[in-house]
Automatic annotation (TrEMBL):
MF GO annotations: sequence-specific DNA binding
GO cellular component: a single term: cytosol
Domain of life: Bacteria
Domain HTH asnC-type: 7-68
InterPro entries attached to this UniProt entry: ArsR-like_HTH, AsnC-type_HTH_dom, Dimeric_a/b-barrel, Tscrpt_reg_AsnC-like, Tscrpt_reg_AsnC/Lrp_C, Tscrpt_reg_HTH_AsnC-type_CS, WH-like_DNA-bd_sf, WH_DNA-bd_sf
GO terms for biological process, alphabetical: alanine catabolic process; regulation of DNA-templated transcription; response to L-leucine
UniProt keyword Heme present: no
Any one Pfam family match given in the protein's UniProt record, by short name: AsnC_trans_reg
Protein name as it appears in the record: Transcriptional regulator, AsnC family
Keyword field contains Metal-binding: no
Keywords on record: Activator, DNA-binding, Transcription, Transcription regulation
Organism, scientific name: Yoonia vestfoldensis SKA53
């Protein structure tokens, strides 16, 4: 059973610190947020247990993992049915190139974050995967030229 955890100033400080460095030791974390190590550990465990902290991730170097070419893709569907949405979402679950898939409000139905090695790899994804999904009406690609701020873990 999940329940609401209070996000007071100390919990907010813990979350901020962990979001920047998920491998920080409990001793260092406790020192940074002004708690004893045991009190800090109890708070972190409570944040994990309640689902506020969903997990920890490694930040990878996109250039070294063959995913340095990032494209945001706006996708419009030809039908606005539950079946069309479910079919599209299932297809995106199976596409390793898609690292994020968001159902959005506005001029199109979905915004994707696609990470591939280069332009030819994106063209192959665009043509062979995205272009073959039923009900895809419009695809607008936005190639990322730089990321002066990126706080994703």
């Amino acid at each position: 059973m999940q329940y609401m955890t209070t996000i007071d100033k100390i919990n907010a400080d813990i979350l901020h610190t962990l979001s920047r460095d998920g491998r920080i030791s409990n001793l260092q974390l406790a020192d940074q947020v002004g708690l004893s190590p045991s009190a800090c550990l109890r708070r972190v465990q409570e944040l994990e247990r309640s689902g506020v902290i969903k997990g920890y991730r490694a930040r990878l170097d996109p250039a070294q993992t063959g995913r340095a070419y990032v494209v945001y893709v706006a996708v419009g569907l030809s039908e606005h049915t539950k079946a069309a949405q479910m079919g599209f979402e299932a297809a995106m679950q199976g596409a390793d190139q898609v690292t994020e898939c968001h159902n959005v409000a506005g001029a199109f139905e979905y915004m994707l974050r696609v990470e591939v090695a280069n332009l030819p790899a994106y063209k192959a994804f665009h043509t062979d995967i995205l272009g073959t999904v039923p009900h895809v009406r419009a695809i607008t690609s936005y190639m990322v030229m730089g990321s002066p701020k990126d706080t994703r873990a």
